[in-house]
Amino acid sequence: MRGTGRPLRTVYFGGGTPSLLSVDALKRIMDAIAESFDISSLEEVTLEANPEDLTPDYLGQLSDWHFVNRLSVGIQSFADADLRTINRVHNSAQAVAALRNTVDAGFHNISVDLIMGLPGQSVDTWKSNLETLSSLYGFQQIKHLSCYELSVEPGTILDKQLQMGRVSLVSDEKVAEEYRLLQQWVAANGFEQYEVSNYCRPGYYSRHNSRYWERIPYIGVGAAAHSFDGLRRRWNVSDIEAYISGAASGTVPYEEETLTERDAYNEYLMVALRTVLGVEKKKVPAKYAHCLADKIAPFVHNGLIDETATSYRPTAEGMLHADGMAAALFEL
After folding, report:
1. Multiple choice CATH, 265-329, 1.10.30, 3.60.21, 1.10.10, 1.20.81
2. In whole angstroms, what is the distance from residue 235 CA to residue 60 CA?
3. Residue 200 to residue 109: CA distance in whole angstroms
4. Confidence class for position 85, pLDDT limits 50, 70, 90
5. Would the N or C end of the chain have less CB density within 10 A of its end CB?
6. Which fold has domain 10-212?
C-alpha cells in the first residue's frame, strides 16, 4: 500500500521489541519491502532488540541472514535496582550476556541504550553504568550510544507509582550532573556527540535517525507509525485491531497535518539545535533571519551557542538547554 519503488537508504525495525519476532518473520517483512522499494543501495538496516531475546541461536540466525547490519540493544541500566524500577524483564547479567553474544555472533556495529535520571538512581550508579560498559568484553564493537533522560508515559506502572508517591523523580541538577559526567566519559572513550542524546565512534552515527533530524522524508509502517514527505506529517492509528483490520481492507486509518512555513521553520529550529551541526543560516527564511539573530544573541553571549559565519551551533553546555532554547526562538 505504501510502496513507491523508490530507492531506500535505511530500514529501521523499531519500537523496542522487534526482536520478539522470529528471524523468519523479519525475512518476510524484508521481502515485502524489497517488493515495494528498490533496496539495492541500502546503507543501514537496524534491529532494536531486548537483551533477553539475544540468545546465541537467535543471533546466529540473524547473522547468517546478512541483512541486519546494526543492532540497537535496550540495556537501559546495568543496575538491577534501576531495571526493577522501570519494570524491565531482563537483569544486569542478561544485559552483559546479550552484548557478549552479539559480539560473538559477528556483529560489529552495536548501539546501546542507557537512561539517566531514573528514580533512586544516584550519580555513583550512573558512573558505575558507564564504567561497566567500558569494561565489557567486545567494548570496541559498541559503536554507538544513546543516553536518554527518563520520560514517564501516562498510564504506565511508573506513572502510577509516581502519583502514589512510591517513587520520586531525581532533580534537574542531578540529571545535569549525570549528563556532564557522560560527556566526560564519551570523550575519554573515543565517542563523539552528534545529537543531544546520541554519541558514536567516528563514522558510526545512526544514518536512519539522522534523517529525522535533517527532515528528510521517510515512511513509517505499523500501528502508530509516523511518516513525513517533506510537507506533511502522517501518523497511523495506534489501535492494533483497527490497524490490522484496516490493512486487511486496504484502508489503514491515519491522521495528517500539512506544515505551514512557520511550522516547518520552528520544527527545523527544534531539531537542528539538538545536533552539533546546529542551525544553518542559509536554511532560515529571509523574513525570520533578523528576528532570529536578535533572539539568539543572549544564548551566544552566555556561551550556550557558538555563532559562525554560516551557523548557530550549541556548545557542550548548550546541549543541556537545547529544547528550552528552541522554544525561546520559535516564531509564534
Report:
1. 1.10.10
2. 35
3. 10
4. confident
5. C
6. Transcription Regulator spoIIAA (3.30.750)
How distant, in Å, are the alpha carbons of 35, 61, 146, 222, 285 from that of 29?
Answer: 10, 16, 26, 11, 41
The enclosing H or E element of 110 equals: strand 110-116
pLDDT winner (highest mean) among 152-166, 171-185, 305-319: 305-319
134: three-class secondary structure by DSSP: helix
Beta strands across the sheet bearing 192-195: 10-13, 44-49, 70-76, 110-116, 142-149, 198-200, 192-195
Confidence of residue 150 (pLDDT cuts 50, 70, 90): confident
Residue 286 C-alpha cell reads as 529571509
Q: What is the Cα–Cα distance from 270 to 278, expressed in whole angstroms?
A: 10
CA 145 to chain CA centroid, Å, is 10
Question: Which grid coordinates belong to 119?
Answer: 528514580
Residue type, 325: M
Percent of the chain topping pLDDT 90: 86
For the chain, the domains span 10-212, 217-258, 265-329
Give the residue among 84, 97, 10 at the shortest CA–CA distance from 53. Answer: 97
Domains 10-212 and 265-329 agree in fold: no
